[in-house]
Amino acid sequence: MSKAIFTSNNFAMSHEGMVSVPTDHGAPQQGVSIKEVVQEGNTLDVSVAARDLQAGELALRIPDHLVITLDRVFEDESLAELLTTDKLSELACLTLYLMYEKKNGRQSVWYEFIKELDRIQGRGQMGAKSPLLWDEGQVDEYLAGSPLVAEIKERLKGIEKEYAELDTVWFMAGSLFKSYPYDVPTEAFSLKLFRQGFAAVQASVVHLQGVPLSKRFALVPLGPPLLSYSSTAKAMLTYNREAKEVQLAVDRSYTKGEPIEAWCGPQPNRRLLLNYGIVTDNNPHDKMALTVTLPHADPLFQAKRAVLQQNNLSTQQTFQLQRDKGLPELLLPYLRLAHCTDAASLKLATLDTCCAAPISPENERTVLHQLASHLQDRLDRYKTTCEEDEVIIRSTTAGPRQKVAARLLRIEKAILRDAKRRRGVEDLRSDYVTKQAASFADRQAERNLAQARKVCETLDRRKGITENVMWPIEPASDDGEEENEIKEGSWEALQVAEKLADVLSCLRSRHLYCLFCGCAYDSKDAMDAACPGISEDVH
């Protein structure tokens, strides 16, 4: 069997022939022509402006009858929808149709279109094929660390599953396939050939908006992959109901010979590489998913889940990281809640982004440490550094597959590194955390001192002691005189921590009382045995 995906042995086809085919079959004169370019050692055909074009001018006009859609393939819209909502996707049905049409050779009405698909062989405008067609081991080697590896393997499994269901179409659409005197699909085509055809169709299909389901996936002559996809262009391939055409109005001025670009839709580069073998610069849709799961073993699981449900969040929540966008606004509030260790701190947790704030320095350090560790672990999965990716991209010896892979990895790493730099995630001893921790410790010490002084006064008075500098200070008199002036060198002039240590020592030595145990002991031996120590930390 030929290595070609669709075509017959007669391979040659002129650029003029490709452009003239739509015109010969009733299409208006096109505003594009085909130009041959060499990209990463591969010769590619690219749609370019046939003349100078102004913004808004139609560069492409392909009549309905020259567009391949499922309703044309099956000549029955209800059957087309049935097939694509049962076991086979639109892409699988279109692939099967063109593979049978290939067997008809020059007799096929789509002969010239199929021949151009085979000339391209599923390569994108960067010279690389979809990773679905890469050699064994290249996906794991070139894309190591990227979540795309798992997506590629999942897509390949899906294609294999659809291949096993191809015979279903043969029997359900008998009226269509009676024109093909060939074997049932799984006997006529190998899985490898079907995968090649699927990737070629996937790289060429246009997703039309505002049309019936049976028309939404379309193969358009002179469209992609001849047409360059861009993540920032505003021009779209659309269906004009009145003219009954698929049209492309350019979004800017083009000079003759300049490659024409169309918007690829809101697809991240990971999807663009998988579908079309390309990676675009400055793609605003690039994202890296970060999933947080609340463990069922958490003693506060039910209480935390209730808070999450009130905010339309689940106990397994996925957040999307984007470059130069900052952390997702609910990520840190979610992690703060997840790391609450008691009911008191849980009451302080809020998912209202307008007033979300750290719960405590300890909680914030835990949150930032976990986030930083997770991001670093993901960065460590990559086999190459960003600097090594740059070397590959600029290399004159690296192949197109290595280069598009390096472009994607560079973007993914930039997103993860940018997330680490946000909100002090990378530096856990940031000024914010340090200052907040010190402030919190001071406030806690003041609260403990106030409580300890009250307890000291109560216990002293029970023993008949009538005066102690450690007792609470009497409030100032109403006449405004400064009766509580603190004199230099007095006990009140000591630091809060020093005064707290004095009061705690007094309580323990004089009254066998521990403020943090909350009780008095019968003897010193009993206190030494049961109380972990004088400070709050050891409790």
TrEMBL record:
GO terms for molecular function: protein-lysine N-methyltransferase activity. Gene3D superfamilies: Rubisco LSMT, substrate-binding domain, set domain protein methyltransferase, domain 1. Residues 481-539 form the DUF4187 domain. Keywords: Methyltransferase, S-adenosyl-L-methionine, Transferase. The keyword Transferase applies. GO terms for biological process: methylation. PANTHER family: RUBISCO METHYLTRANSFERASE FAMILY PROTEIN, UNCHARACTERIZED PUTATIVE METHYLTRANSFERASE. This is DUF4187 domain-containing protein.
